[in-house]
Amino acid sequence: MRESILTIPISDILEPKEGCPICRMRDTLEQRTVEYIMGDAMMEPDVRIETNRTGFCHTHFGQLLKQKNRLSLALMLQTHLEEVHGQLFSRKKLFEPKNARKAKLSEINSTCFVCEKVDHGMGRLMQTFFEMYGGQEFRDLLDQQEFICLPHYDLLQSLAPTYLSKADLESFTRLTGELTEKYIAVLYKDVSHYCSMYDYRNTGKDADWGNSRDSIERAIKFLVSRN
Predict the structure, then answer these.
(1) Which of 114, 135, 189, 222 could be stapled to 60 by a disulfide with Cβ–Cβ 3.0 to 4.6 Å?
(2) Spacing of C-alpha 61 from chain mean position
């Protein structure tokens, strides 16, 4: 797979200042990979060897189905199914280990071409992310983000000690903690207001829902996201 697909300027990711920047990073990688695999790459032998081996997870099969080129997906499914059949139901080899096919079944059910590429790309981008934290302009951009979702707040806290100096780690922990904590407070206020609007005293044509109407969706997205 071309490395350029996995290369995204971190500053471009931070520029919108809407939602979680790490989610935007992951979503961009994911979209690029889906578009890549449904394009000319589908006919590249090394790519087809990988997709035949890994297949795709439920989420990414859904995204592939939304692309326009259904023939590309059909061709990948054709050879992937052939690979699955051969791995699981071909005649047993003379010295094949007893549980080899059971292990292969588990592997087939737990691998995905897009997931593997996104995970690889995220690893590289996270390293660049922390390297850029040394610059004041980058810190200012990070400080201006709307929030960091809870799963990616966890990810950043777990990776930060590996990449940052003690002094930078302290400021990074404070900055990301403040972004996350402030948004929790906003969500709590909006969800609480949503709940209060079901009190009979707050009903009527002049009822003010404020920013609470989509608070349930926003709270769920913040709490679980997609790692």
Answers:
(1) 114
(2) 15
